[in-house]
Amino acid sequence: MSSGQDLILRHPTGSCCLPRRADARLLQARTVAWCGTNRLLTDNSRAEETQAGLNPGLFSVLVYPQADEDAAQLLSDFMAWWFLLDDGLESMADLPPATAGNSRQFEIYSTALADQQPSGTTNVSISVASEIGHRLQLLSLDSWHRRFCAAMSDWLFKGITEELVCRQNEQHKAGIGIDQYLNIRHFSSGAIPTLYLGELAKTGRPCLRPASTLVEAFLEQAARIIFLANDTFSFTKEQNEPAPFNLILIIQQRLGGDLGRALAECADHYNRYNRAVECYLQIRDEL
Predict the structure, then answer these.
(1) Sequence-ordered list of residues with C-beta below 8 angstroms from that of 32, at least 6 positions apart, any chain
(2) This prediction's pTM
């Protein structure tokens, strides 16, 4: 920072220190074999490079330590597929502006995750999405599965689609507003589906959860902590991209290039959301 002060990001109380019920190395080995069986890495050097730098088995047990072995394996496989899909969709930012064809492809992904196999598809990733959707449905209640599929659809349409449009059009060059960025990133980060998976991991079969404004407010604040932490860690990589989508860089542009002030303002956002989450954690039994 230009002021010479350290940035402090205060993390909410979490479950990362809980005992892990599944073996990360075993999960990872099975996920790698599963990716091979489903040809997720076939003739795709970018996917191989991405998968080599990931460890969805370890990710699953760190984020969902209470998941039993069956749920943890499903989560590890799902994360491997999701990370590879997200990486492929991110590369579309280099293509011409988003078209109706992309929307149609996203609809097919949404259908597949709802455990409805699209007829005649030769897209490996879509076929795997259908398998994942089926496995999720077997392990969960219909009510949870519907909510999760809706969250994944929001990720594709309200998140990824809007982010791609922002990256590709002239609006990005002029700078987007912070509120617009926060609204899009809320969905494109994938934080909400990730949080929903916590229900599956903790209980094995998620309970029917009645609609609650408190729960939805908690999820919104928690999601913002997740994507702001993500923006912080990816800042170094994204600052060299032609069309970055990162809160620090957006704030920096608004402030005329002052990185120190931009980092401080981003930290303020993070810590404000974190304080809200801490308040909700104090009434967790009501949630």
Answers:
(1) 51
(2) 0.81
